[in-house]
Amino acid sequence: MYSFSSKIKLTALISMVVGLVAVIYSFIATPSSVADLHQGGEAAHDPAHLEHMLHMLQNKPWAALYVAALFFLLISLGVLAFYAINRAAQAGWAPILFRVMEGITGYLPVGALIFFVLLVCSGLHLNHLFIWMDPQVVAHDTVIQGKTGYLNVPMFLVRAAVYLLGWIAYRQITRKLSLQQDEATDNRPFIKAFKWSAGFLVFFLVTESMMSWDWVMSVDPHWFSTLFGWYVFGSFITCAIAAIILVTVTLKKQGYLEHVNDSHLHDLAKYLFGFSIFWTYLWFSQYLLYWYSNIPEEVTYFVTRLENFEPIVLGMLAINFLLPLLILVDSDIKRKPWVVGTMAVVILIGHYMDFFNMIMPATVGREWSIGAAEIGSLLFFFGLFTYVTFYTLTKAPLVEKRHPLMGESEHFHY
What are phi and psi of 328, to 5 degrees? Predict the structure, then answer.
């Protein structure tokens, strides 16, 4: 059984406390009226511009919370999808890591609850993250009016509840079956988990695309992309592999997972490299199609980001594509825990920048910055994610006892 490291626990708790204080401060420091902007030297601007600027600044702490909450929720979801894929495929190399994956997906119910509360806050007009939720905006916008059959608050929240409850249900069912397999005298829990995993993947493929439309693409309701669901998937599945690597390397360093060898690490690093290239392919495909068509209402999405968020865009491309291409392409490098672990951390930062780039331009515009709200939100959810993950790992043996493919996994060699 795993014993929760006091060092990890303390790090997670300090991260949560510091992050929470920073987030609270960011809300307190947010201007509450146009008069506060005048005091900041903005008197020369016209009233309409000042009102718009006020909304953007008031969105800033909300948007920072939203990005961080979504980022860590989707890491957990990505691990769940990867877990389901390996169970459905009956992959022989992976069972030794299933309990690690179950530990990470332990964050899913917690993260889902917090994220749903944030969506409800948007629906109650406590922020302006989704402009299609504002009746005054919709009244003067014919494009959004044409989408109200789908983009309306009640259905938005119902869909979110269906996605989240469906994902959590699969996680809880397979976790229960995994624990039952430890005590079982036959393989019935294993077979049931296989069937649930195959069914879940169908549900996941549909809900993941719809989730990306609802929670990410709809912050820019005038713009759409037919491959956006794949793009978002490419980003968070890469983060999921990085998270599995970091937890695995940490546990190995503490003396656990004795049968996890450099071949397992090599395979995880291959997935990290492969999904990094997959994400780049989707990013470039999406960008190239819109650049080539040059339709004003479509290219605005990219123009806004390249003009106002250039450091973020160029930074995430360098981190998420060039670094994996230059470093992880070597087979021997993939077997070195410190290199692969470092790359996992760097790639997680790069994909947080990707989610920042997807959300912030539409919600805060040119008023963006990296301040207390952004750093505090990231620290809080990082601490919460870490605490819940390692706490979940203490609740069961780190290796399934009677998984029929465990022998193959323990002696895996590539």
Answer: -80, -5
For residue 172, give the nearest of 248, 97, 108 by alpha carbon: 108
DSSP category for residue 272: H
**What does the DSSP assignment read for 167-194?**
HHHHHHHHHHHHHHHHH-SSSHHHHHHH
Average of per-residue pLDDT values in the chain: 93
Q: What are the structure tokens assigned to 156, written together?
A: 């938005």
Confidence of residue 283 (pLDDT cuts 50, 70, 90): very high
- The CA distances from residue 376 to 125, 127, 201, in Å, are 23, 19, 34
Are 162 and 214 spatial neighbours (Cβ–Cβ below 8 Å)? no
Q: 60 is written with which tokens? A: 């800033």
Six token digits for residue 280: 């780049």
Helix (H/G/I), strand (E/B), else coil: 172 = helix
CA distance 49 to 143: 23
Tell me, rounded to whole angstroms, the distance of Cα 321 from its chain centroid: 18
Query: Distance (Å, rounded) from C-alpha 221 to C-alpha 4?
Result: 44
- Please count the residues of the chain: 414
Q: Dig out the tokens for 116 from the structure.
A: 């749903």
**Distance separating alpha carbons of residues 182 and 173, to the nearest angstrom:** 15
Residue 291 has a pLDDT of 86
Residue 43: predicted pLDDT: 46
Binning pLDDT at 50, 70 and 90, where does residue 377 land? Answer: very high
Give pLDDT tens digits for 7-19: 999 999 999 999 9
Q: Give phi and psi for 46, each to the nearest 5.
A: -75, 160
pLDDT of residue 148 exceeding 60, the answer is yes
Q: What DSSP letter does each residue of 279-319 carry, written as one string?
A: HHHHHHHHHHHHHHH--HHHHHHHHHHHHHSHHHHHHHHII
Q: Supply 295's token pair.
A: 């339709």
Q: Residues near 262 by Cβ (< 8 Å), separated by ≥ 6? A: 335
Cβ(400)–Cβ(99) under 8 Å? yes
